Amino acid sequence: MSIDRCLANLDEAIEAANALGLDSRSAVATRDTVRARLGFPSSAYILALVGGTGVGKSTLLNAIAGADVSPASARRPTTSGAVAWVPSSRGRELADLLRWVGVSKTREHAGDALADLAVLDLPDVDSIVLEHRQLVDALLPRVDAVAWIVDPEKYMDHVMHGSYLKEFAPRIRRQIVVLNRSDLLSPADASRVAEDMRGQLRRDGAGDIEVVATRAKEGAGGIEGLRTWLESGVEAKRVVVSRVAVEAREAVRDLAADAGVVGGTKNPLVEPTRRERALSSVTRGALAVVDIAALERQAVGATRFAARRHGAGPLGALTSAIYRLIGRKRTSADPAAFLNRWQVRGSLAPAVEPLLELITATLPSVPAPLRRGLAALSAPTSLEHRLAETVDRSLAGEAASFRVPTSVLWTVIGAAQYLVTAVLVFSALWFGSLFVIHDAPVGSISVPYLGPVPTPVALLAAALVLGYLLAKLLQLHAGWLGRRWAKRIGARITGEVRQRVVDELLAPLDRFEASRAALNKAVSAADDCP
Ligand SMILES: Nc1nc2c(ncn2[C@@H]2O[C@H](COP(=O)(O)OP(=O)(O)OP(=O)(O)O)[C@@H](O)[C@H]2O)c(=O)[nH]1
Ligand SMILES: [Mg+2]
Predict the structure, then answer these.
(1) Where are the domains of the chain?
(2) Ranges 1-10, 437-446, 513-522: which has the least confidence
(3) Which of 127, 151, 441, 488 could pair with 132 in a Cys bridge, judged by C-beta atoms 3.0 to 4.6 Å apart?
C-alpha cells in the first residue's frame, strides 16, 4: 500500500470516528503532523537522543561527532534546548525541517559519514524544569527515529518506561535503546541489565528493540555498537515513510479501540436477532395505535356505502343521502380520514419501549467513548417523535391512494331495483284501486297451497321478495369486494410501516454500525501500510 493510500485510510477512519461522536483530535493532530513531515524533503532523516538527565546524551552526541558540539557536564540538568548535529551538505535542505521540529541550535559537520542523518541532543525527559519535558513531548512526534538513552541507575525509570517507551515506541520504526555509562558495570552485569531492559521493553508493549551498551565518556571507542547501528544501510526516505506509516496505523488502531472494534472481527453492537425482535415489537406497537382491524372495517363500510349508492335503487339513494347528512359515513366508512386521525387514538410511547430497552441493554457493553453517541440516538422523546413522523409518512402516502372499489354488477342491480320499485308502486296502486273503484279489473294467480291470489297482491309480494334478494346480493357482493380491498390496504400499510421503521428509525443505528464497520475495515487496511 502506498503511503498516500495509508494516509487516506487514516482520513477515512477519522471520518468514521467523527460520525460515532468519538474524540478524534489526537488522530487529526497525528495526520496533520505526518502530512507536514512528508512535505519536507526526506533525503536525510532526524534521529533524537531521548532520556533522563545525566544519562550522557550530550556526551554521546559529542562521541558520535568526534567533537564538542553540545556541552556536557556534571551539572543537572545541562542541556536546555534541542541541538542538531547535521551534515553541512544538507544544512540548507534541512533548515526548514529542523525549525518545524523545534530545534534551536544547529551544528554542522563536514564529514562524509552519516551524511543522511541529523542527530538531535535533547533536554532531559525527567527534568525538574517543566519546559524541558514539554519541549521533548512537542518534538517527539516530529522526529523520524529515536535512540532511547538509559544508564545503569535509570534503566528501569518509570517516567522513561511509563510515559515514553510505552507511548512512543509502538509509533516508531527505527529506534534503539542505548545503555550508556556501562563502564560503571562489570561486563556480566552490563549484559544482565541489557537483558532486563529487553524484558521490560516487551512488557511496555514496545516489542523487540535492539539494546546496545556504550561508554560515551571514552569517545568514539566507547560507542561502537551505536555507531554500527547508525551506519547500517537504511535509506532515509524509507525511515521517514515507515515512521509516518506507523503513526498513521497506530492512530487508526487507537480510534478503532475507542469504537470497540478489535482484531478485525465483525462484532455489531446490537445483536441481529435481538434487533430483529425489537423491530417487530416496535412495528406491532405502532400498528396497534394505527388499528389495522378498525381500518379494515372502515374499508368494508366504505365499499358497502358505495355499493348502496350505485345499486340500491331509489330507496338506497335515499338512505345514502340520509347517512351522508348525519355524518355516519365519515365515522364508519372513511378509511382515509380514519388513517389521518391515527394520532388521536393513542400514544407511541409504549411502541418505542422495546427499542429503548434494546439500546439501554446494549449500552453497558459499549466502549465508554462510544456511549455518548449511542445514548443520544435513544433519547425517548426524539425516538417517539421520529416514529410518529415515520408512521405519518407511511400513512399519508397510502391514504392518498385509496380508491374504493366499484363494480358494474352494482349498476345492474341498481337498474333492477328501479324496475322492482316501479313494479312495487304499480302493484300497490293497483291493489289500492281495488278498494276505491268497485269494478276495477283484477285477475288471480293460482299459488300452491294458497289457491287463487289476486294478481296485484302476488305481484306486490314477488316484487318485495325480488327487491330483498337483490339487496342481499348487493350486500354480499359489496362485503366480499370490501373485505378483499380491506385486506389489501391493511397488508400494504403493515408492510409500509414496517419498512419505514426499519429504514428510518433504525437508520441512525445503522449509520452507527456502518461507521464501526468502516473503522474495522480501516484497521485491517492499516496493517498494509508501508
Ligand atoms: N562514567 C561515565 N560517565 C559518563 C558517561 N557518559 C557521560 N558521562 C558523564 O555523565 C554526566 C552527564 O553527562 P551529559 O552528557 O551532560 O548528560 P545528559 O544526558 O546530556 O544530561 P542533561 O543534558 O542534563 O539531560 C557528565 O558528567 C558526563 O561526563 C559514561 O559513559 N560513563
Ligand atoms: Mg545534555
Answers:
(1) 30-258, 272-406+478-526
(2) 437-446
(3) 127
Residues with Cβ–ion distance below 5 A, ligand 2: 57-58, 78-79
83-87 and 117-121: which strand pairing? antiparallel
Render 296-348 in DSSP notation, one character per residue: HHHHHHHHHHHHHHHHSHHHHHHHHHHHHHHTHHHHHS-HHHHHHTGGGG--S
d(CA 269, CA 360): 12
The protein residue with its alpha carbon nearest to ligand 1, atom 24, reads: 77
**Residue linked to cell 512512543:** 168
The verdict on whether omega for the bond into residue 452 sits within 30 degrees of 0, i.e. cis, is no
Secondary structure of residue 433 in the 3-state scheme: helix
Q: What angle do CA 167, 173, 177 make, to 5 degrees?
A: 70
Q: What angle do CA 438, 442, 448 make, to 5 degrees?
A: 135
Confidence of residue 265 (pLDDT cuts 50, 70, 90): low
Residues in the ligand 1 pocket, defined by CB under 6 Å? 51, 53-59, 72-74, 76-79, 123-124, 180-181, 183-184, 215-217
pLDDT in tens, 470-504: 989 999 999 999 999 999 988 988 888 888 887 87
Question: The domain 30-258 belongs to what CATH superfamily?
Answer: P-loop containing nucleotide triphosphate hydrolases (3.40.50.300)
